[in-house]
Amino acid sequence: MSSISVDALNILAYLSSKGKGRAWVYANCKKGSVLPDELSDRRDEISSILESNRSGFDGIITFYDSTFPKIRAHVSAGDYPLCFFYRGDVSLLNTKKIAVIGTRNATHEIQVREEKLVDALVEKRMTIVSGLANGCDSIAHSRCVEKGGKTIAILPSPVWRVIPDSKIALAEDIVRSGGLLLSEYYTVAGKTELTPRYVRRDHLQAMLSDGVVLAASREDGGSRFAVNYALENDVDCVAIYDEATDAHDPLFALNRMVVKKRGEAGVVGAGDVNNSVDRFLERCFKPKNLFDF
């Protein structure tokens, strides 16, 4: 179990103070710097919270660390993550990662199609990223574990306080199988704070991945936050789609939007799953400039 570094505590103290967003902290909080006296009490409070939950996480990784994930998305400094709590194999952050996301209300047919897609990605040794929500997220994690792959669950809560409660057992399976739980948070969110955390979790799914696959979603579903983030920030995004069966299905409305914007390049999993996955991955891993502080 690694120690909690002073640098990590300094970052967290700055982020908890008024007017100190991610861009400001990156520009002004340097490795080994001394925290202002007015924030020392806040740092001590954070340290106390973390020590009281020390058995619930394996460590903290900050943007100072050489092992911090390289981000291929074209993100702004105000979006760039600075600090993650983790439980499990943190080295997965620097593997080839594909986010698989979708509706919480997955039908059996959606599950069957998504599992075939996950099987193909695991066969290609992709790490599967998702959000541990009900439905498509859980299908992605569970199928990956079942097939012997590695998966990362990004949480809107501390890694030691998994939500929803119904996914605690799955979270344990992920860690036990060599996967990773990841979060920016060390406090449990109140009602007003939880929704922004879910949006941020969805942004991180796209930001930390080399590509995004949408299994199925209504147009106004939560998956739109990850999908739109990917499309706007140069992360390859595709959707499972078959015109013959999905053209009028409301659970594929967001998929249709992806296909409309991206054309044939936006379709994966139709017909020969392995070939469509191969084409998708070839695009995902074409060399491009990394947004890497």
Helix-strand blueprint:
Elements: H1 6-15, H2 22-28, H3 40-52, E1 59-62, E2 83-88, E3 97-101, H4 108-123, E4 127-130, H5 136-146, E5 151-154, H6 168-176, E6 180-183, H7 191-207, E7 211-214, H8 223-232, E8 236-240, H9 243-246, H10 253-262, E9 267-268, H11 273-284
Parallel strand pairs: 3-4, 3-7, 4-5, 5-6, 7-8, 8-9
Antiparallel strand pairs: 1-2, 2-6
Helix pairs in contact: 1-3, 4-5, 7-8
Please explain how this structure is put together:
Helix content is 41%, strand content 13%. With 293 residues, it is an alpha/beta fold. It has a 9-stranded mixed sheet, with helices on both faces. 45% of the residues are buried.
Q: How many helix segments?
A: 11
Low-confidence regions:
none
Decide which structural class fits the backbone: alpha/beta
Please indicate the percent range of residues in DSSP E strands (runs of 2 or more): 5-15%
CATH class of the largest domain: Alpha Beta
Number of domains: 2
- Quaternary organization: single chain
Give the averaged pLDDT, no decimals: 93
Q: Main sheet?
A: 9 strands, mixed
- Strand count: 9
Return Rg in Å: 19 Å
CATH level-two architecture of the largest domain: 3-Layer(aba) Sandwich
Characterize the overall form.
globular
The CATH topology of the largest domain corresponds to Rossmann fold
Amino- and carboxy-terminal Cα gap = 27 Å
Can you list the strand order of the major beta sheet? 1-2-6-5-4-3-7-8-9
Helix content bin: 40-55%
Write down the secondary-structure element order.
HHHEEEHEHEHEHEHEHHEH
